[in-house]
Amino acid sequence: MKLSDFDYPLPEDRIATRPARPRSSARLLVAEGDRIRDLIVRDLPEVLRPGDRLILNDTKVIPARLTGTRHRRTGQGAAAAKVEATLLEPQADGTWAALVRPLRRLRAGDAVTFSPELSAEVAAVGGGQARLRFNLAGADFDAALERAGAMPLPPYIERLRRPDEADREDYQTVWARRPGAVAAPTASLHFDEPLLAALDARGVGFTHVTLHVGAGTFLPVKVEDVTAHRMHAEWGEVTPAAAAEINATRAAGGRIIPVGTTALRLIESAADADGRVHPWRGETDIFIYPGYRFRATDALMTNFHLPKSTLMMLVAALMGRERIMAIYDHAIRAGYRFFSYGDASLLIP
């Protein structure tokens, strides 16, 4: 399998920079077997069956993008320089790993001011990242970050526009509960309260799991032999109650449908060879590409993914490479909007 097997041409004007409003008015491509239907997300209750179960990722995106000023003592005084940091994840020693631009402006011992209340010392620089030790911790840090930070939009959106206040709501699911992600589980952004109520009335069940989506989700694959790629690790949890709900649905003949590749990767990490999902907590670096045998997943609701990405490989594993390329060709010709703020698909093998 070559990286080029998962490439496709996409006009830049198909990259969505704002979501549909209301959320459930986005378009929905339903691919089942050899059939494709062009619907709207609010039609989902008519597509799903009573007894189906949607798996929802309840991670909450933190405003991880910070703009600040680096200060360094020199022989002539304090030298200052503008920097931009994207927080990645907290470390065991109390620091935060961060991507900083431009990284060459940082040295260990530098001070960075992000707001009147939030500052950090550069603890280390290396491996393309910095480690920042903030002046606040716990709830005080969370509150200061909420005021100083911006939503960490994907690079392909930031090339076209800067984050703004609207993204604080738009780039967060309506059921977000557990802070820790630096990217949204974007298929879930299409759901609003009226749609959830309609699905509930239809007899569709909901199970919440947690996978804190990391910035590594946007990292390009750099090897031509895709089987040599190594995935980034992300922290997740499937509670005993969530595992019991999934297993009961499967036993009753209902379909398990993750909303988003993050929820799918998590339940596949927690499932055994017989498809039974177990309580699970830890980091997963599961890499799903064609040839993978799905254990717990019957279908997937997801957005349209970047060419040559690991997520393209995942949907190709679910539907077959030739079939997914035909689906994407249809979506492009039909004018669907792509990527994080774009339209959705429901993929049923």
Compile the SSE list and pairings:
Blueprint (H helix, E strand, L loop, with lengths): L26 E6 L2 E6 L3 H4 L5 E5 L1 E3 L3 E10 L2 E14 L5 E6 L9 E3 L5 E8 L2 E6 L3 H11 L6 H4 L6 H6 L7 E4 L11 H10 L2 E7 L22 E5 L1 H12 L4 E3 L2 H10 L9 E5 L15 E4 L6 H10 L1 H13 L10 E5 L1
Parallel strand pairs: 1-17, 3-12, 3-14, 4-11
Antiparallel strand pairs: 1-2, 5-6, 5-8, 6-7, 7-10, 8-9, 9-10, 12-13, 13-15, 16-17
What can you tell me about this protein's structure?
- The protein is of the alpha+beta class.
- Helix content is 23%, strand content 29%.
- A 6-stranded antiparallel barrel has the order 5-6-7-10-9-8. It has a 5-stranded mixed β-sheet with strand order 14-3-12-13-15.
- A hairpin with a 2-residue loop joins strand 9 (119-126) and strand 10 (129-134).
- Helix 8 crosses helix 9 (321-333).
- The radius of gyration is 21 Å and the shape is globular.
Derived structural class = alpha+beta
- The CATH architecture of the largest domain would be 3-Layer(aba) Sandwich
Helix-strand sequence: EEHEEEEEEEEHHHEHEEHEHEEHHE
Spatial strand sequence of the major β-sheet = 5-6-7-10-9-8
Sum this structure up briefly.
The protein is of the alpha+beta class.
Features of this protein?
QueA-like, alpha+beta, five-stranded mixed β-sheet, 9 helices, six-stranded antiparallel β-barrel, 17 strands, 2 domains, 349 residues, Thrombin, subunit H
